[in-house]
Design a protein that fits this description.
heterodimer; A: mainly alpha; globular; B: mainly alpha
Chain lengths: 318, 272
């Protein structure tokens, strides 16, 4: 078998194992902890009978291991059960919201990734001069703020003071693509800023790393323009770390979305999750946690595989 | 104090001011924490430097008390994370073998789930109180510290002076606390600053989502949550915590940068 294929299959198997372990962890997180779910839902004043009834509906009268495999088996078939608070099917609620969340995340990703790489190149080109320092300064400021505050700052400036975008990102099926895009403009901008900083810094570091090599000096001595050297000679050799960091940030985007959706009242997965955490609706929290964790693990896995594939030494073994 | 760059000094001073304000909050706050002293969302005036909040409480007072809660929770969680993470990380590095493997793989597993998501899952069944918040944040953050301290300790563990201590017949405890810890301190201190800032951002995020510090206690994330409706009417009360958080995190970053640079220059001096 081709060694790359073998490595990739190994990584995939490892990823599946990790995902499985993560489901155990998520389930254990809500089950084995000292809090009694029925008690927390009903509050201190609940009667014994009501508690017993709720435990029976939740299946709490069975051992945790049995419930775990039931839950996992159902989840694998796309059945997450019904929400405790609204009695609605969780899978249908999630289905609609997941699309919205992915829309927001992909708009942010489409803007952030090329911008980050371009700014990274720019920072290397003008290394230690004002463009580099300006970019570093802005990115430092944007990582010093939690996402939700960045969201409110942008909302205050662009929606309230300037009135360019709506302050609340309501979105529904009857809207056209451009209307949707206008609605998610602000949250997408916040998410872009949040991941931009890290991606740009890593791009800069990865390219600077290659810039030390002897062949870059050769290119310089040939008299090539500095930007050409960076883009044509340094960039291809730093593709692997850059792709890696891009993937990691896309994974981070998935989490950042949770908070941003609450800020802009965007009908996506994140808001659904946070709503139901405060209502202590355990099945919904488990389902959302599972989906977020799988997307996160999946993107990390993808990052791993791409960096294997991007390594020419592995692709063309001697 | 000689040789400390101005930026680091500035960072230290501002950080110290924040901590002093947190410790002496009841002395310097002009009003009581949940005392209602005026109209809703009054603009800044002589009596209320930052105006009032959504219930007519003095915003400056809320910010000072809020800083106290936020800084306290973040510090406690960071301390817990560092104690646990570094000791376990050093142990993994020193013992090696299957102990190391099991600890490292378990750590990878916990790190494979995004911190916020994991915290939300856990907090959905736990009562949200300060000790539990600190515990959850500290435990989740200790995974990051574990990874760093293990990596640092593995490097130190193969050095000659550690070998010498082993041959001298010192126990594992001596190796960990007397040989590795002093030499790993510099990178850990730099990391401490960053983790502290992350803890501040994290507790603020949780409180903003309504799953952190509970009212009537004040904290920076909670102030944003309470005053968020004001934004639409152009009232910037909810943005005050932003100023505080940015100031604090930039100052801590300045100190951490200096600590980190010192470490790397030390490494350079060792011959490389």
């Amino acid at each position: 078998m081709h060694p790359v294929l073998k490595l990739v299959i190994q990584r995939l198997a490892l990823g599946c194992l990790l995902l499985f372990a993560a489901t155990v962890l998520i389930f254990a997180g809500t089950e084995i902890l000292p809090g009694d779910v029925a008690q927390t839902i009903l509050g201190q004043g609940a009667t014994e009978q009501a508690l017993a009834n709720l435990r029976a509906t939740l299946g709490m009268d069975q051992p945790a291991v049995v419930r775990y495999f039931q839950w996992l088996g159902n989840a694998l078939q796309g059945d997450f059960g019904t929400a405790l608070t609204s009695r609605q099917d969780i899978a249908t609620s999630i289905g609609r919201r997941l699309g919205n969340t992915l829309f927001l995340a992909s708009v942010a990703a489409i803007i952030a990734v090329p911008l980050a790489i371009f700014l990274g190149l720019l920072a290397v080109r003008y290394r230690d001069r004002w463009p580099d320092k300006l970019i570093s300064g802005i990115t430092l400021a944007s990582i010093s703020l939690p996402e939700f505050l960045l969201g409110y700052v942008l909302m205050y400036v662009f929606a309230v003071q300037l009135g360019w975008f709506p302050s609340v990102s309501n979105i529904n099926d009857s809207m056209s693509f451009w209307q949707k895009l206008n609605a998610v403009a602000l949250p997408a901008m916040v998410l872009t800023l949040v991941v931009l900083a890290h991606m740009m810094r890593m791009t800069r570091a990865a390219i600077l790393n290659v810039m030390q090599s002897a062949y870059i000096e050769t290119a310089e001595l040939k008299g090539l323009r500095r930007f050409t050297i960076i883009a044509r000679h340094a960039m291809p050799n730093s593709i692997a770390p850059i792709v890696n960091v891009v993937m990691l940030n896309l994974a981070y985007l998935v989490v950042g979305v949770v908070v941003i959706e609450v800020v802009f009242v965007y009908p996506g997965m994140g808001q659904y999750l946070v709503d139901h955490v405060s209502k202590r609706d355990v099945p919904v929290v488990q389902a959302c946690g599972l989906i977020f964790a799988s997307v996160y693990i999946g993107l990390n896995l993808l990052a791993d595989i791409i960096s294997i594939l991007a390594n020419p030494r592995l692709r063309h073994p001697r | 104090m000689k040789g400390i760059p101005i930026s680091a000094l500035l960072g230290m001073t501002i950080t110290a001011l924040f901590f002093l304000a947190a410790i002496f909050a009841p002395l310097i706050a002009p009003y009581g924490m949940s005392e209602i002293i005026g109209d809703v969302w009054e603009p800044a005036s002589e009596a209320h430097w930052l105006g009032t909040d959504n219930l007519g409480r003095d915003l400056l007072t809320r910010m000072i008390y809020g800083g106290r809660t936020t800084i306290f929770v973040a510090s406690a969680a960071t301390l817990l994370a560092f104690t646990l993470g570094s000791v376990l990380g050093f142990m993994a590095a020193v013992y090696g073998g299957w102990v190391d493997q099991i600890m490292a793989r378990l750590n990878d597993l916990v790190m494979s789930i995004p911190t916020l998501i994991f915290a939300l899952v856990v907090l959905s069944v736990m009562p949200v109180t300060l000790p539990i918040l600190i515990l959850v944040m500290g435990l989740l953050d200790s995974t990051r510290v574990f990874r760093l301290s293990r990596a640092v300790a593995v490097d130190i563990n193969v050095m000659d002076f550690v070998e010498a201590a082993r041959l001298r017949g010192e126990g594992q405890r001596w190796i960990i606390f007397r040989e590795i810890l002093p030499n790993a301190l510099s990178p850990l201190v730099a990391e401490l600053g960053l983790r502290f800032i992350f803890a501040i951002l994290f507790i603020s995020t949780l409180s903003f989502l309504g799953l952190g510090v509970q009212p009537p206690m004040a904290d920076w994330g909670g102030i944003v949550k309470e005053n968020r409706e004001g934004i639409v009417y152009g009232i910037p009360a909810a943005l005050m915590p932003a100023v505080a958080i940015v100031t604090l995190s930039i100052s801590v970053n300045l100190v951490a940068d200096w600590a980190l640079n010192r470490t790397t220059s030390l490494k350079g001096g060792r011959g490389g």
